[in-house]
Write a structure and sequence with these properties.
- The complex is a heterodimer of chains A (483) and B (410).
- Chain A is of the alpha+beta class.
- Chain A has 14 helices and 15 strands.
- Chain A has helices spanning 6-20, 26-47, 76-90, 115-118, 228-231, 236-241, 282-294, 311-317, 327-338, 351-362, 429-433, 447-452, 459-467, 470-482; strands at residues 58-59, 109-110, 138-147, 153-154, 166-167, 176-187, 193-204, 216-221, 259-262, 267-270, 342-343, 373-374, 388-389, 397-399, 417-419.
- Chain A has a three-stranded antiparallel β-sheet, with no helix packed on it. A two-stranded parallel ribbon of chain A has the order 1-11.
- In chain A, a hairpin with a 4-residue loop joins strand 9 (259-262) and strand 10.
- In chain A, helix 3 crosses helix 9, helix 7 packs across helix 9 (327-338) and helix 10 crosses helix 14 (470-482).
- The longest helix of chain A is centred in the N-terminal third of the chain and has 22 residues, at 26-47.
- Chain A starts with 5 loop residues before the first helix and ends with a helix.
- Chain B is 59% helix and 1% strand.
- Chain B is built from 15 helices and two strands.
- Chain B has helices at 7-23, 39-48, 54-87, 91-111, 134-138, 168-173, 187-195, 219-244, 251-257, 260-290, 304-320, 331-338, 340-358, 364-369, 375-401, and strands spanning 322-323, 326-327.
- In chain B, strands 1-2 form a two-stranded antiparallel ribbon.
- In chain B, helix 12 (331-338) crosses helix 13 (340-358).
- Chain B is globular and about 65 Å long.
- The two termini of chain B are 25 Å apart.
- Classes of the chains: A alpha+beta (483), B mainly alpha (410).
């Protein structure tokens, strides 16, 4: 059951009035509106704080490195690990054997040679822009119909789980991605037009033969990676409390958990991270990125990402140490990322932002972008235990409609289902990453476009926004950008 | 552009940062049991009169100005040597250019004690997003292959990419955009251009002066690149000097007019952060932990040791308000009057840092090449401890003065 379900609450109230005073009088309508207003008002006040991640994990630095700040008051030992993890995150891995065995092992196939290559300043990636000939911070997941032994996507028999667009010397890259954008014009209720651009994909310079007609692919940009230690620490029971797969409350919003394979526990776990809630833990997500994106083996993924049919890749993968990234280094990167602070919300008292805040709740955005959660006590970092946080996500999958579908299942997630992404820090992307491209594939060129792409379970919310006048639209965006 | 007077922008930034610092207030807990809390009551009456702190703030501002002035003058000297090298590239002029880089670094390194409080070096304009020049001046580690050829990749880097027009605008536009390590400017870019990659276990990089002989290969592009990034460094240092010069409507004027307690908090935060985060963690511990001989701050020239020495000197300078022939009113005098015991501890900690850094073997990459548990590594570990101790005492000094000081990390 959902804790914060305005719509159902109001409907119940409304039907009560319909029974008692029918036909609905102006006074009754006002009463409903007032009840709604006071409930929204209470919620807004409960969540209106600049401390997005609580008193001990919120950062007040809003520069280009706003996402790269550690939580305040690190002790010596954690500061040292943080610095080292930061170093690894920024390391340009080189081909093995290199002069430094601890920092070699790139590829043989890879997308970028460093974590920071895609997550610049720990921030958000984007699709290529005019003049760029390759994808710098966006990649293509690949599979074919069916499931692997763990219930996850069945990797492409030749190309594996993602299109690796670079290879080390002597190993052919897998191919390149060409994106064509098609503009579709639509309009708001007030007649103002807007245009959304829809991508279509073509894969060229394929290094290992055709991808085949049944290939499934999912384009994804790299998300910002701060605050994940807190999301990991939200009690599973609290996340599941929001689940409503059959929409029993009739609000049009379901919310489903993804259950994904955990390499550490060798069983299925609740998925929390990734665009499809397809990763159970931060550590596994990092190890997966080392493996798929940089071609580095770790104790968790000890085999190279070369498929059996990529002989040059297989041969090159035997060079250097058996493990490219040691367990110690993997743990340090995990600690580093989990110690990144969440930027504080800005302009909390701004009139425009507060007006937008009301619209955010009135438009039901808060049904999925949950404004408040309380963490559990499972973190090794005391700063993350039993804290009230404002991530604006329920970590659940929602049907976002056919236009956003990647048509590729990922464990329990269908093509149309995506995990509600957190909104904290989203307004700082322009500052940290010099762009404002949003959504899983970066198709939205600004926050308003991102909202207008919402459909499926979010259809009513999108329609709500289409009815807003220009001032209200500005206010809503100002609020989201202040998070 | 950063060379205009900053007054309006800075006033706004200061108001914002003042508001935020109230909002973000985090009590800093006493970390060292050696310091008795009894100093606070003694401090209170003195600090109740803000004017009592003004001489210290003014001494600091003058110290900052003089240090930036030296840094600029030394960089101009370097520029002359680089120009002479480019006019007549040979082994001798090349050596002179490299020596002038090493020399010029010394004063700049001392200015790093003025970072971390959004002053001219690393401000951010909340309206425009414009930032101070720190990232342009001293970013590292850098992906040298983004600038020029590297071992195994003869055609890498913008210098060898004819489609890239070598101009200041283009160089700045491509600085750290698609990758944070894609640094295009600053001390380490110049260092890489002068020395080249260091594959020499016993010494620095061995780039030949012939890379700068005009007309060959992409040499003209490389010559122009070196010339432009050197100019840019001078421009950036000139900006810093101007913002701190006395008697102008500049950052310094606003700095000395602010609430001196808040200002003192910034000064101490800057010292503590350089000491514990930048020096102890980023530049020493990371190098020790990575097992990479060249994972050091000034890897091309093998001058990382002098980075430690002069960074540490920068911290001492501020505490004693001494730089060259300038002798201002130091924080040591303030502390001596209100918390003499803490002052003695602070001075002892500064001395300990100086001593332990002095014991580090050179060049630093030889320490990194030594085995785990080596004596060379143990010395660096003790320097790390000294820097951490020193930083925690600086925070204590803040508490004794009733001001907010903290160890940041970024």
């Amino acid at each position: 059951m959902k804790r914060q379900n305005l719509r159902r609450w109001v409907l119940a109230l409304l039907s009560a009035f319909v029974v008692v005073v029918f036909p609905l009088s102006g006074t009754a309508k006002d009463a409903v509106q007032n009840a709604l207003d006071s409930q929204i008002e209470a919620q807004i006040l409960a969540n209106r704080t600049e401390l997005s991640a609580g008193e001990q994990a919120t950062s007040f630095k809003f520069t280009r490195t706003a996402f790269a700040q550690p939580i305040p008051n690190l002790d010596r030992q954690r500061r040292r690990v943080f610095s080292f993890g930061d170093r690894l995150f920024n390391t340009q891995w080189v081909q093995a054997p290199g002069s430094v065995p601890s920092l070699d092992g790139l590829g043989p196939l890879f997308n970028r040679s460093s974590c920071a290559g895609c997550h610049i300043r720990v921030g958000r990636g984007r699709p290529p822009i005019a003049g760029e000939t390759r994808m710098r911070s966006k990649l293509i997941r690949l599979s074919i119909p069916g499931e692997n032994a763990q219930g996850g996507p069945l990797p492409h028999p030749v190309y594996g789980a993602q299109l690796q667009e670079q290879g080390i010397l002597g190993v052919s890259a897998e191919g390149k991605t060409q994106i064509t954008w098609t503009e579709e014009i639509d309009q708001f209720a007030d007649g103002t037009t807007f245009s959304l651009r829809k991508p279509s994909y073509e894969f060229t310079e394929l290094g290992y033969g055709p991808l085949g007609d049944d290939v499934l692919f999912s384009p994804r940009v790299s998300p910002a990676v701060f605050g994940l230690g807190l999301l990991e620490n939200i009690p599973e029971a609290d996340i599941l409390q929001q689940v409503d797969p059959d929409d029993l409350d009739g609000d049009g919003i379901s919310g489903r958990p993804n259950y994904v394979w955990s390499e550490e526990s060798q069983t299925k776990m609740l998925g929390r991270l990734g665009w499809k809630a397809n990763e159970p833990t931060l550590k596994q997500q990092i190890a997966g990125a080392f493996s798929g994106d940089i071609g580095l083996t770790t104790p968790m993924f000890a085999n190279s990402s070369c498929s059996e049919q990529q002989a040059d890749c297989q041969a090159a993968a035997t060079l250097g140490d058996p493990l490219d990234v040691s367990g110690e280094f993997l743990d340090k990167v995990t600690t580093y990322l989990s110690l990144l602070a969440v930027p504080a919300r800005r302009n909390v008292e701004g009139a425009l932002e507060q007006r937008g805040e009301r619209l955010f709740y009135q438009g039901q955005c808060a049904s999925c972008h949950l404004p408040q959660q309380v963490t559990g006590n499972g973190s090794v970092h005391e700063e993350y235990n039993n804290k009230t946080i404002h991530a604006y996500t329920d970590l659940l999958l929602h049907d976002m409609g056919p236009a956003l579908s990647d048509m590729r299942p990922d464990f329990e997630a269908s093509g149309q289902e995506w995990r509600t992404p957190p909104l904290w820090g989203i307004g700082l992307v322009g500052t940290t990453n010099n762009h404002t491209f949003y959504l899983h594939d970066g198709r939205a060129r600004n926050l308003l476009e991102a909202i207008l792409w919402h459909d499926g379970e979010a259809h009513e919310s999108k329609e709500f926004v289409r009815q807003l006048n220009a001032d209200d639209r500005d206010a809503l965006i100002a609020f989201v950008a202040s998070l | 552009m950063p060379f205009q007077p900053l007054s309006p922008r800075f006033s706004f930034a200061l108001i914002v940062s003042a508001a935020l610092s109230v909002a973000a207030f985090q009590p800093v807990k006493a970390l060292s049991p050696a310091v008795t809390p009894s100093v606070a009551p003694t401090a209170a009456p003195l600090l109740a009169q803000g004017d009592a702190l003004t001489p210290y703030v003014e001494s600091y501002a003058e110290l900052v100005y003089r240090t930036y002035s030296s840094a600029k003058a030394d960089a101009v000297t370097m520029q002359r040597a680089i120009t002479a090298f480019l006019i007549n590239p040979n082994a001798e002029t090349h050596q002179a250019a490299k020596a002038s880089w090493t020399e010029a670094r010394q004063s700049y390194l001392q200015t790093e004690a003025f970072r971390f409080y959004e002053g001219p070096i690393d401000f951010v304009d909340p309206e425009t997003g414009e930032e101070g020049p720190e990232g342009r001046i001293n970013a590292w580690p850098m992906n040298e292959a983004f600038i020029d050829y590297v071992q195994g990749k003869a055609d890498s880097g913008v210098i060898n990419d004819p489609s890239f027009e070598i101009s200041v605008a283009n160089i700045l536009e491509n600085d750290q955009v698609s990758d944070e390590a894609d640094v295009t400017t600053g001390w380490h870019a110049i260092e890489f251009l002068l020395w080249g990659q260091d594959f020499n276990a016993d010494g620095p990089g061995e780039r030949s002066y012939e890379d700068f002989v005009s007309g060959k290969g992409n040499n003209n592009r490389r010559r122009e690149y070196l010339n432009l990034v050197t100019n840019q460094l001078i421009d950036d240092l000139t900006f810093l000097e101007t913002e701190w010069q006395p008697g102008s409507e500049n950052y310094r004027a606003e700095f000395v007019a602010q609430d001196p307690q808040e200002t003192l908090g910034k000064i101490l935060t800057s010292l503590a952060t350089l000491s514990a985060f930048e020096m102890a963690s980023e530049r020493m511990a990371v190098s020790l932990d990575s097992g990479d001989q060249e994972d050091e701050h000034s890897c091309f020239s093998d001058t990382t040791y002098q980075d430690f020495v002069f960074n540490a000197a920068g911290i001492r300078n501020v505490y004693f308000a001494d730089y060259g022939d300038y002798q201002g009113t130091g924080l040591d005098e303030l502390l001596a009057s209100i918390a003499p015991e803490l002052n003695q501890q602070m001075i002892a900690a500064l001395d300990q840092t100086q001593t332990t850094i002095g014991q580090i073997s050179t060049p630093f990459d030889q320490v990194l090449a030594s085995a785990t548990g080596s004596e060379e590594r143990a010395v660096v570990e003790s320097a790390i401890v000294a820097l951490e101790d020193q930083a925690e005492l600086i925070v204590e000094v803040g508490s004794a003065l009733g001001v907010e000081a903290e160890i940041l990390a970024e």
